[in-house]
Amino acid sequence: KKLTVIKFYASWCKSCAKFGAKYRQLALDEGDQVDTSGKLFATGRVRFAEVEFGANKRMCKSFGIKRLPYVHIHKGKAGKLEDFVCGPSKFDLLINKVNEYVDMNDDEILLRRELEQGQALGDTIVQGLQDEQALDLGISATNSNSTQQVFRI
């Protein structure tokens, strides 16, 4: 049920090392707290995990990971929410995504996803209507191959 952030990295990657320092600080701020014996003493808002690319090449390639460091964000039944390349200079993007999703429940996330998909469908319909209108008026229109054609009545 908890928001989960997974970092994919490689031990030889300098960008991953810089990213890793910031990631560890975020995990300390937002993650579960454990004592020296590994026993949980404070529950965080987010779970953090790390996957080393070299030791898990097959899995990483199956996820389509080609650049590192890479991040997946998951939550409960909503599943994967985001995945993106996230170098040290883009770390604020990760923080913004964590803050965006951490307090949302699964139903809110699923509703938001449906609304975004509906918006995308609406945009496609509007573009189709605009293209059709351009045809009717004999105005230049751009087709799906990004070439310009002039239509006449």
Rg (C-alpha, Å): 22 Å
Number of strands: 8
Portion of residues in beta strands equals: 15-25%
Poorly predicted regions are none
Mean pLDDT: 88
Structural class: alpha+beta
- Helical segment count: 4
Report the major sheet.
4 strands, mixed
Following the backbone from N to C, one meets helices and strands in this order, namely EHEEEHEEHHEE
What does this structure look like?
The protein has 153 residues and is α+β, with helices and mostly antiparallel strands. 43% of the residues lie in helices and 25% in strands. The chain is built from four helices and eight strands. A four-stranded mixed beta sheet has the order 4-1-5-6, with helices on one face. A two-stranded antiparallel sheet has the order 2-3. Strand 5 and strand 6 form a beta hairpin. It is elongated, with a radius of gyration of 22 Å.
Task: Outline the fold blueprint.
Blueprint: E1 3-9, H1 14-30, E2 33-34, E3 40-42, E4 46-52, H2 57-62, E5 70-75, E6 79-85, H3 91-101, H4 106-137, E7 140-142, E8 148-150
Parallel strand pairs: 1-4
Antiparallel strand pairs: 1-5, 2-3, 5-6, 7-8
Quick description:
The longest helix is centred in the C-terminal third of the chain and has 32 residues, at 106-137. Strand 2 and strand 3 form a beta hairpin. The protein is an alpha+beta fold and 153 residues long.
Give short descriptive properties of this protein:
153 residues; alpha+beta; 4-stranded mixed beta sheet; two-stranded antiparallel sheet; 25% strand; elongated
